[in-house]
Amino acid sequence: MDSSSPLTPVESDALQAWCEEHSRREAASATFAGESTLQNYCSRAYGKLGAENIEEAVCIAIDKGFIAGPALNPGLFRKLTTQQVKLGELVGQGLTNAQIATQLYLSEGAVKSRLKVVYRLLGSTKSRVYFAALVCKHLKHQARQ
Predict the structure, then answer these.
(1) Is the dihedral angle over the CA atoms 33, 49, 100, 68 positive or is it negative?
(2) Angle (CA) 76 15 13, round 5°
(3) Phi and psi at residue 121, in whole multiples of 5°?
(4) Do 83 and 91 touch, CB atoms closer than 8 A?
(5) 59 and 78 share a domain?
(6) Residue 129: which of 7, 28, 34 has the closest Cα?
């Protein structure tokens, strides 16, 4: 994507695969790497991007144009409430469920329940990374308009 990216091509591919796939195993398969190898590439990317975790690293990489991120389906965001999009933003900032609960004045259990609802709406089995990546890309797209 961006020639000024601090990421190696294999690190970019690892982040891109993880934000498109629904599990670590599927992302590893898409990059022809083992799960531990994929994790190592992503860990190196965290450090280079100053991220705390995979969700934050993917959002930084999308925001800076280092990876494309998942394909956007404009109709998908019509299904999500404003609070669900906010939930995705907080996930993309690398916050834990407990930290999100504090910010949204909810219990941690309520955050988990709301994430499960969102995953079902997205057709995802349970991918925090995919959700964060979709919201980051959506917000970046909206900012351009």
Answers:
(1) negative
(2) 110
(3) -60, -35
(4) no
(5) no
(6) 28
Extract long-range pairs of 93-96: CB within 8 Å, 24+ residues apart: 93/55, 93/56, 93/59, 94/51, 94/52, 94/53, 94/55, 94/56
User: Side chain identity at 123, as an amino acid letter?
Assistant: G
Residue among 128, 42, 145, 127 nearest 90 (CA):
128
Question: Residues 50, 79: one domain?
Answer: no
For residue 28, give its domain range: 9-63
The model carries a pTM of 0.81
pLDDT tens-digit map of 24-51: 888 888 888 888 998 899 899 989 999 9
Radius of gyration for the chain, computed over Cα atoms and rounded to the nearest angstrom: 15
